[in-house]
């Protein structure tokens, strides 16, 4: 009686194939940029760290993740023994070695 009927408006025909793909172009560009800015450098850094950890040898001067500096005295499969001072030796996981110092850095 008092309520009038509401009818749906005509729906426009869907856009062509190129117009539909064009709306996703900014998203694709952002994902590609994200890959080259963030993901690719992180993967490269992880590969370099793994290669450095795999090549640790006795006598290398290293910095451990918590900032301790010392000379490697023993190398195990997953653990290295780092001599911090004469008679002071700690065991650390290989992955916790953050970098190898040039020879002669530690006196």
Walkthrough of the structure:
This protein has 107 residues and is an alpha+beta fold. The chain is built from two helices and five strands, in the order ααβββββ. The protein has a five-stranded antiparallel beta sheet with strand order 4-3-2-1-5, with helices on one face. The model has no long low-confidence stretch (mean pLDDT 90). This is Sec translocon accessory complex subunit YajC. Keywords: Cell membrane, Membrane, Protein transport, Translocation, Transmembrane, Transmembrane helix, Transport.
Helix content: 25-40%
Q: Strands of the biggest beta sheet: in what spatial order?
A: 4-3-2-1-5
Return the structural class. Answer: alpha+beta
Q: In this structure, how is the largest beta sheet organized?
A: 5 strands, antiparallel
Spans with pLDDT under 50 lasting ≥5 residues? none
What general outline do the C-alpha atoms trace? rod-shaped
Helix and strand sequence: HHEEEEE
DSSP, total strands: 5
Number of helices: 2
Task: Give a quick set of tags describing it.
107 residues; alpha+beta; single chain
The gist of it:
The protein has 107 residues and is an alpha+beta fold. The chain has helices spanning 17-22, 25-54, and strands at residues 61-64, 69-75, 79-85, 88-93, 97-101.
């Amino acid at each position: 009686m008092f309520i009038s009927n509401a009818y749906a408006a005509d729906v426009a025909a869907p856009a062509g194939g190129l117009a539909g793909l064009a709306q996703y172009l900014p998203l694709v560009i952002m994902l590609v940029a994200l890959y080259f800015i963030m993901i690719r450098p992180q993967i490269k850094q992880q590969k370099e760290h793994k290669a450095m950890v795999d090549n640790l040898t006795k006598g290398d001067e290293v910095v451990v993740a918590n900032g301790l500096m010392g000379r490697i005295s023993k190398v195990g499969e997953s653990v290295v023994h780092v001599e911090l001072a004469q008679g002071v030796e700690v065991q650390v996981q290989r992955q916790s070695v953050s970098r190898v110092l040039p020879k002669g850095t530690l006196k």
